[in-house]
Amino acid sequence: MHLSRNAKESIKLAAALVIVYAIAMGLNWEKPFWGGFAVIVCSQANLGQSLNRAILWILGTLFALVGGWLIVALFPQDRWLFMIALSIWVATCVYLLQRSRHQYFWVTCGYVILLLWDATGGDLSISYEEGILRVQESLLGIVVYGLIAVLIWPNCSREALRKASIVLLARQRLFAAGCFTRIKSQEKVMLHPDKRVELLKADASLRAAIDDACSDSYEIWECRKQWNHFGSRATALTQSLLKLEESLALSNELGVAEFFPGVNDYIDDIQCRLNEIKLTVDEGVLANMPKERCIQGDIDKIKALSTSQTAALAITKQSLNDLEVESRSLIDSVNDIQVMGDSYLKFPSEDGAYWLGLLMPDPDRLANVVRVIVGLWISYLAYLFVPGMLGGLLVVLLITVIAIIAALSPQIRLFETCFYTIIVCLLSAPMYFVLMPKLQGFYSLGIMIFVWSFIVCYLANRAFGAQSMIRTLVLIFPQIIFNFNDYQVYSFVVYTNYIFVLAIIFCILAVSRNIPFSSHPERNFKKNVDRFLNSAGSLVVQGDIPESRRQSFFYRLYVLYHINIIMVSRKNILYWMEGIDKGRIRGMSKDQMRSLVDLLMLIANQVKILYRVDRGKMRFVATKKMLREAFIWRCLAAKVFFYLSGRKREIHIDSLRRGYRRVFDRINIEVGELMELRESDERSKEGVSNFLYFLGVVHCIDNYLSDLFHLSELVDWSCFCEDRCL
After folding, report:
1. What is the pLDDT of residues 687-697, one digit of tens each?
2. Burial code of 524-540, b = ≥16 C-beta within 10 A, e = fewer?
3. How far is the C-alpha of 64 from the C-alpha of 57, rounded, in Å?
4. Percent of the chain scored above 70 by pLDDT?
């Protein structure tokens, strides 16, 4: 009989739960539930994800155990200092987990230290023995599920990695073919947001598949550096294709092929390279290393163009050359996988950018930290000052654990989560009151655990996915109510108390998740849009800062902060857009929202490019007057960004256009001279290329910003962000 993957994974989880409870109850452990908790959290869609979580869970448990004992040793008698130290520990874990590659290490660090505290019942003098027991229970669940995941129907990620690679390469070839077709036919290029999103999703899937396959495939692990390099080069190629489409949208109506001799041969070469890359990944055949190519413009024809047209061609030329470089690098990377090469050594490590993003201040991450700490303190104060509070320290523990997990997916609908969890708990009542008291021995109990866990897991996976928070909670809470152990008692009061505990937990979470600001997707969407525009304006206006100031530490930190905000806000805008109920949206239409997001994504690319344009080389060919006009444009553009971000300024978009036109009107007659100056020496050639590239980027930003301004004027933001019931 053929079983679906969902059925197999549900059977594996149910079997692991039965084995964990059998061992824990056979050893007469006090709380077998924590072994089951570890099984549920470690169970994932494939073997790589499960092993990743299992390993991170073990390491995080050991690290948190040492940290917990250290805090207990430092503050054994003062509960307030103990809580402050505990809060600092949890806050640090929550902040780091939101950008870490190893999220569940930090989740475990934050959860186990609370588990240790809950195990003592507030009596820290017994923390060592209870802590060891809880760690043993958690490790039991991890080891049992890890063995089952490896030995029974292992869902290895190696094939998923191959498929993800082929899908991404196919999307890249189709995207490139669309751009190249329009170059040859000289048709005007229209941006296709859906295809751009598909390409980015395929790129993200490849990076995730590489991480998973490195955990469950020895062959992938042995060449993990080569695969990671392939992933980074594939991402670079994706970004080059997106920039090429953006540049063609501005210049292709000129007839790019007419001004770039040999562009047709270039197109054939790039398409051949992409096909060879696909063949190498699919069949393991080494790709031929192509010769370096460089697109050059026809100077005589370009001299007849206006400055704006010349600038548009300059950015297109740069995009084509960048694509050529990235395609060669991608061929190097796929060949390295076959022969264990080391071309990755030629490229800087991504670790610097990773640690920068991990430690850089981020308002949204800080807000999630505040939410977790507020939930922790509300529940702890209630435990202290409400006599006989239901659940006691268990409420404190579960609120903090759920809040930590929710920090990974803050757009989760709390009401929906609460509703499904309570429904499953109510459906477990007949088993608790009718079936369980009549069971004879563990064999019958084990069958019940297996059947119940299989049904809930199977349905939850189909409805919400294997990584959903709802799926995790609907599996966890019934086991809290069942409370399987060797001294099983059945009480209607205990059952109803647990239901009330569940209600208390979600009520406190409903309060904490709206601190320091609302958790409505619409409000968070607007907040990230404003933050993005403000940082974009700050980077644009900083482009002409004197070199002496640009080298200072605080200035670099300031710039890095805004670059980080642009990168993070861009992802958050897409994230919160997915969480908005499109059927209840107000103040704008779905098409307006899609256009708004598309424009913001385009602006993000161009702002980062603009900041990196080499000003020093521009000075070789640009007069002080030209540079002054460019500075005026920067100031006007920044004012419009600030205006759109909510920092109201008395400015209209026409002011930006007048400032922009001034730049081109003043130098339009000098295009021929610039082209002649380009031929004089290598330094002048680089200066002309940089100056025209700068003007091309300015041209892009001006068009996108103008469209964004007019679109924003049509949107009723107050209606869009008004309070509505979640």
Report:
1. 777 777 888 88
2. bbbbbbbbbbbbbbbbb
3. 10
4. 86
Amino acid letter, 154: P
- List all residues 6 or more positions away from 554 whose beta carbon is below 8 Å from its beta carbon: none
Is 495 within 8 Å of 433 (Cβ atoms)? yes
**Cis before 516? omega within 30:** yes
Q: Are 563 and 532 in contact (CB under 8 A)?
A: no
Tell me the C-alpha distance between 519 and 368, whole Å.
Answer: 10
Q: What is the pLDDT of residues 330-358, one digit of tens each?
A: 999 898 888 888 877 777 776 666 677 77
Tabulate helix, strand, coil % of the chain (nearest 5): 80, 0, 20
Nearest to 192 by CA among 230, 249, 148, 154: 249
Task: Provide φ and ψ at 152, rounded to 5°.
Answer: -115, 120
Closest alpha carbon to 34 in 401, 315, 372, 324 = 401
Question: For 28, left (φ over 0), alpha (ψ -120 to 50), or beta?
Answer: left
Are 508 and 378 in contact by the 8 Å Cβ rule? The answer is yes
Buried b (16+ CB within 10 A) or exposed e, 215-245: bbbeebeebeebbbbbbbbbbbbbbbbbbbb
Q: For the segment 599-632, what is each residue's pLDDT rounded down to a tens digit?
A: 898 898 888 888 777 666 666 666 676 777 777 7
* CA distance to 240, 313, 332, 350, per residue, from 705 (Å): 22, 20, 38, 31
b (16+ CB within 10 A) / e for 149-158? beeeeebbbb
Instruction: State the Cα–Cα distance between residues 102 and 53, nearest whole angstrom.
Output: 9
CB 134 within 8 A of CB 119: yes
Global pTM value: 0.84
Q: Residues with Cβ < 8 Å from 284, sequence gap 6 or more?
A: 338
